[in-house]
Structures are given as C-alpha cells and as structure tokens.
Design brief:
Structural class: alpha+beta
CATH class of the largest domain: Alpha Beta
Helix content: 25-40%
Radius of gyration: 21 Å
CATH topology of the largest domain: Alpha-Beta Plaits
Order of helices and strands: EEHEHEEHEEEEHEEHEHH
Low-confidence stretches: 248-259
Strand content: 25-35%
Mean pLDDT: 88
Shape: globular
Distance between the termini: 51 Å
Length: 259
C-alpha cells in the first residue's frame, strides 16, 4: 500500500550535493564511514518522520515521500527553493571577537558557533571582529537524496515510543514507561535515573513535550524520574550517558554550573 500524507514512517537516506555528488549526510553508518563523514557522537539509524510534514524534513523531501512503497529505494532531486533556500547576504554579520570569547566560543575560521539562538560559521577573523555566516551550510545548493521507507508505523503506542526515542537517542526504550490517563489529553513518561546526567536534559524534556503536543495532541505532559535501586548493571549506552554527565560535572566551573 502506498505511503499517504500524515503517515508515520522511518526512512533511511543519503544526501548528496548535485554539483559534485559529495555526501553531506546519511543515516547509514557504512556510507558515513566510506565517505569519511562518520561522527562517533551520532547514532546511525532510520529517521522518524510524518509524511508531508516539514517539521521533520525539508519541504521538497517531505512531499516526495507521498506515494512511496515500503522498502522501495527512490532517488529525488531537490531544488534549492525546496531545500534550504537561497543564500542571504544579510545573514552574514560582523561580531566583536571578544563577544565570542565571553560566550566561551573559539573564534577560528570554519568553526560552527551558536550565538543568540542562531547557528553560524565563522568565515573570517581580524581587527577585533569576526564575520559569521548565519545561512544554513546548504543554502543555495541543489540536493539529491536516496530514500528508502524501511518501516510504516501504525500503532499509536509505537509512534509514542519513537517520538520519545527521537529526543533521547541511544536510550533503552524498555526502561521507559508511558501512561495515558483516563483523561486522553494527559500523558506521563517515566525516565530511568541515569538520564539525570544527560547533557541538555531539560531541553530534551521541553522539546519532547512540544512534540507530544504538536504531533499527538496531548495537552498535559508529565515526566517522572524513576530511581530503581534494585538495578545493579547498566548497558553500554547507559554507562556512556552517565559517565559523560559525570565528566562534565567534574570539569565545570562554578560559573558554568550557575548558567
């Protein structure tokens, strides 16, 4: 049965620049390694998305999924206007270099920085000022995507779990309890205790609550931190999350902790 708009699916994809076929992103680890773009901090797995929804994919790609068949590889060319748009010279700004240092950002050409809620790339540094390009790195580019729909999600419980996993990559979903109360507008999510060490936990909770509201129409989202003192061993993923959090806590300054 063809995939329809608003269906929930998981896709594998590889994105390439049309101009030179250079791979810039993929969900497939073997391709990431062969193209030398492998990121050890990333989990390579199929991407969850709702067909036709631009909150998950660029416009041209979101629409291209409509009508696809499961496990049938397809290739799509996405024009700039349906991808990340044209480059805008107004988004290239001069910023005092001391402002970057004050924000603990390394003012070196090529570095990606987060400033005032915007992501940009430093393109030049000199005279006490840094020029930052706040355009998306792929702005002005025509793109090509190889896409395969690998799973079609139909059960709402399954969709809830995938939405949660999207915001907590690497988490053991067997340790998360999801309860929908008699009031169908309320959902409760119990999280295992090792997540207290996760960097950006508060942001992950906020964005997950927003997802559950926007995509599944829940009006109240409750989080419960579950401390299971009977559990004596952790999986490798759980240990990584815990150790990373402890390391950041030990290395942080009082000023960093306050912020």
């Amino acid at each position: 049965m063809p995939i329809a708009e608003d269906d929930w699916v998981k896709i594998d994809y590889t994105g390439r620049l049309k101009e030179n076929s250079k791979v810039f992103d993929t969900t497939l680890e073997d391709i990431a390694r062969s193209e030398r773009i492998f990121d050890e901090k990333r989990t390579y797995k199929p991407l969850l998305c709702r067909v036709g929804d631009e909150k998950f994919l660029i416009p041209g790609l979101a629409r291209s999924l409509i009508g696809l068949e499961l496990n049938s590889p397809q290739t799509f060319e996405i024009a700039t206007i349906d991808a990340y748009g044209e480059r805008d010279s107004k988004k290239i700004e001069m910023v005092p270099t001391k402002r970057l240092r004050k924000a603990n950002l390394d003012p070196r050409v090529g570095n990606r920085v987060q400033l005032a809620g915007r992501s940009g790339t430093i393109v030049s540094v000199g005279g006490g000022r840094s020029r930052i390009d706040f355009n998306h790195p792929l702005a002005g580019k025509d793109l090509i995507f190889d896409i395969t729909v690998v799973e079609h999600l139909e059960e709402e419980e399954e969709i809830r779990k995938e939405i949660i996993s999207r915001r907590f990559p690497g988490i053991n979903m067997d340790e998360i309890t999801i309860e929908v109360s008699e009031d169908p507008d309320t959902i409760s999510v119990s999280l295992p205790n090792y997540l207290i060490f996760m960097e950006g936990l508060a942001i992950a909770k906020y964005t997950l609550a927003t997802d559950l509201r926007d995509f599944l129409n829940f009006k109240v989202v409750k989080f419960v931190d579950l401390f299971d003192y009977q559990k004596t061993t952790l999986t490798d993923e759980e240990t990584d999350i815990q150790e990373e959090g402890k390391e950041k806590e030990e290395n942080s300054t009082p000023e960093q902790e306050e912020s």
